[in-house]
Amino acid sequence: MKQVNLTTPLKEADIAKLRIGQRVLFNGIIYTGRDLAHKRLFELLEEGKELPINLKEQVIYYVGPSPAKPDQVIGSAGPTTSGRMDVYTPELLARGLKGMIGKGKRSPEVINAIKEYKSVYFAAVGGAAALISKSIKSCRVAAYPELGPEAIHELVVENFPAIVVNDILGGDLYEEGKKIYAVK
Amino acid sequence: MLNSFNDAYEEESSITGKDIIKQLIENARIAKSESMPICQDTGYTVIFLEIGQDVYFEGGSLEEAINEGVRKGYSEGYLRKSIVSHPLDRINTGDNTPAVIHTRIVTGDNFKITVVPKGGGSENVSAVKMLKPAQGAEGVMDFVVKTVKEAGPNPCPPIIVGVGIGGTFEKAALLAKESLLRPLGQPSKDDYGVWLEQELLERINKLGIGPQGLGGSITALAVHVNFFPAHIASLPVAVNINCHASRHKKVEL
Ligand code: SF4
User: Fold this and answer.
1) Which of A15, A149, B110, B134 sits at a 20 to 30 Å CA gap from A63?
2) Minimal CA–CA distance to B209: which of B126, B147, B153?
3) What does the pLDDT look like over A66-92, one tens digit per residue?
């Protein structure tokens, strides 16, 4: 299958070319963030305060990895369900976040915001956590160390595999894919 | 699990779907060779105990001993701690305790422990419904298929669908969970169950959800149905969904 190489930070021109169903390989820095980190970022934005990381053109990966063994960069690190982040997402996209990696459907509000702010949502393979961890070359805590697996980590990745699910045209692979293979 | 992935790879008609199943096979290989978790969500520790009535436990507390085992296992095994002490305060207990323990007293003098860590993604889309007896097998199938359809990509398909039919409200849920302990794809012992399992698997795989919900012909690898007698007024049905990262371990003492 055709694969697209993507280097972060994501540029508008790269995003504009992405279409649902394409397989991509990420290279560069991506940030982790799940429930509690999102809540904190959102609250800071509401209070008009500075964020601990600059979101511009960045990608957030929804993950809460298992602990690393002494000889590992990171433990198993597969995607978590993205829908729980939906309430916070449009605001982060408005502040320049360009990509999100997770698993599962997004709300209509998020799909609209993806279109409006010209960003993109990718799915990583849920449960392929050992495989994915192999593409993570370094990991350091970027904010909120007290949150443990929920802290914001900065990951350097090489050929991290994902699939485009929602693109700037408003396409949704979960809907389209199902239509093709459903048997009446 | 691996055999089932290989069959699924052959049968899946979507290219993306095939590619995903290939990644899952490779994932299982890496997890095994590097002894790391298949999935980072190493679950709520659910424990099934079968205690022979002639077994006598001396000193201490069995429940405490089990929790101590969970504590050690999750820290020494580098597994993720995913339990919060209060469902509304949400402060992590830090050691994945307490376990959820189901106990059955049986005849004999054996003691059997089955450990079934259960991931949150697939547990969150599980459901129980009290149907009317008149709704019968059709009603049961509609509810099961609807539950899987609504779950869509969230439980990381391909999934295993556990169905409990009968008993009371809580019994149905337990039946569904217990059906997931059966070796993958081993058919029900009950003829009605065998039929229902096949029919449900076919209907579920016609939904087109596919691996990871990205479209395809393999949404479920298997459906397991367990029954229990029901009240004349009730037809309880529970659907417990398990992801492909289905893990159990049995020890007999
Ligand atoms: S549903 Fe299963 S495979 Fe998916 S993230 Fe949860 S535990 Fe892992």
Assistant:
1) A15
2) B153
3) 999 999 999 999 999 999 999 999 999
Mean pLDDT over all residues of chain A?
95
CATH number reported for the structural domain that contains residue A87 in this entry: 3.20.130.10
State the distance from the centre of ligand 1 to the C-alpha of B122, rounded, in angstroms. 6
Domain that holds residue A168: 4-181
SS3 state at A124: coil
DSSP string computed for B130-166: EE-GGGHHHHHHHHHHHHHHHHTTTT-SSEEEEEEEE
Atom of ligand 1 nearest to the CA of A79: 5
Q: How far apart are CA B161 and CA B144, in angstroms?
A: 9
What structural domains and CATH numbers belong to chain B? Answer: 44-118 (no CATH), 121-246 (3.30.1330)
- Interface predicted TM-score (ipTM) of this complex, two decimals: 0.89
Strand extents, DSSP E, A8-128: 23-32, 59-61, 99-102, 120-123
- Provide the number of structural domains found in chain A: 1
Residue A23's region, left for phi above 0, alpha for psi from -120 to 50, else beta, is beta
The Cα of A112 is separated from the nearest Cα of chain B by a number of Å equal to 20
Q: Please report which helix (H) or strand (E) contains residue B241, including its range.
A: strand B235-242
Other C-beta atoms within 10 Å of A26: how many? 26
Residue nearest to atom 3 of ligand 1 (CA): A127
> Is any ligand 1 atom within 6 A of the Cβ of residue A127?
yes
Q: How many CB pairs under 8 A join A and B?
A: 163
Is the peptide bond prior to B98 cis by the omega test (within 30 degrees of 0)? Answer: yes
Active-site annotation holder among A14, A22, A30, A38: A38
